[in-house]
């Protein structure tokens, strides 16, 4: 279950990052509320995953899911640039996540 919690926490990190952008500096109530609720849920799930997973593994995977997910969502939903260098950087992050998962002794 620790990995399920961690993946859900990462997905919620993407949600709160996107909704924070949509909140326009916490000036829009709905997006601000989604941000805060998703943050709390993401942190709660991360902490639950850390009961069974090492700190380095859990935190790296959580931030990596959030970083790559926010990048992809930014490109798709917000029209941000998908330059070759940015795509390569995202690929490197995913490669790191795969290596971190493979090295986890769970």
UniProtKB/TrEMBL annotation:
Pfam family, one: Multi_Drug_Res
Signal peptide from the UniProt entry: none
Keyword Transcription regulation: no
One BP term from GO: xenobiotic detoxification by transmembrane export across the plasma membrane
Transmembrane segment boundaries: 27-46, 58-79, 85-104
Localization per Swiss-Prot or TrEMBL: Cell membrane
Key word S-adenosyl-L-methionine present: no
Record keywords: Cell membrane, Membrane, Transmembrane, Transmembrane helix, Transport
Membrane topology: Multi-pass membrane protein
Example of a GO MF term: transmembrane transporter activity
UniProt GO cellular component terms: plasma membrane
InterPro entries, A to Z: EmrE-like, Small_drug/metabolite_transptr, Small_multidrug_res
PANTHER family assigned: GUANIDINIUM EXPORTER, SMR FAMILY PROTON-DEPENDENT DRUG EFFLUX TRANSPORTER SUGE
UniProt record similarity statement: Belongs to the drug/metabolite transporter (DMT) superfamily. Small multidrug resistance (SMR) (TC 2.A.7.1) family. Gdx/SugE subfamily.
The name this protein goes by in its record: Guanidinium exporter
Organism: Sphingomonas cavernae
């Amino acid at each position: 279950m620790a990995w399920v919690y961690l993946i859900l926490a990462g997905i919620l990190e993407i949600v709160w990052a996107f909704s924070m952008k949509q909140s326009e500096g916490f000036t829009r109530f709905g997006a601000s509320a989604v941000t805060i609720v998703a943050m709390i849920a993401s942190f709660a799930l991360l902490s639950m995953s850390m009961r069974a997973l090492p700190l380095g593994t859990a935190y790296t995977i959580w931030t990596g899911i959030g970083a790559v997910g926010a990048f992809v969502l930014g490109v798709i939903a917000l029209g941000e640039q998908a330059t070759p260098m940015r795509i390569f950087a995202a690929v490197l992050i995913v490669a790191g996540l795969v290596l971190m998962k493979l090295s986890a002794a769970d």
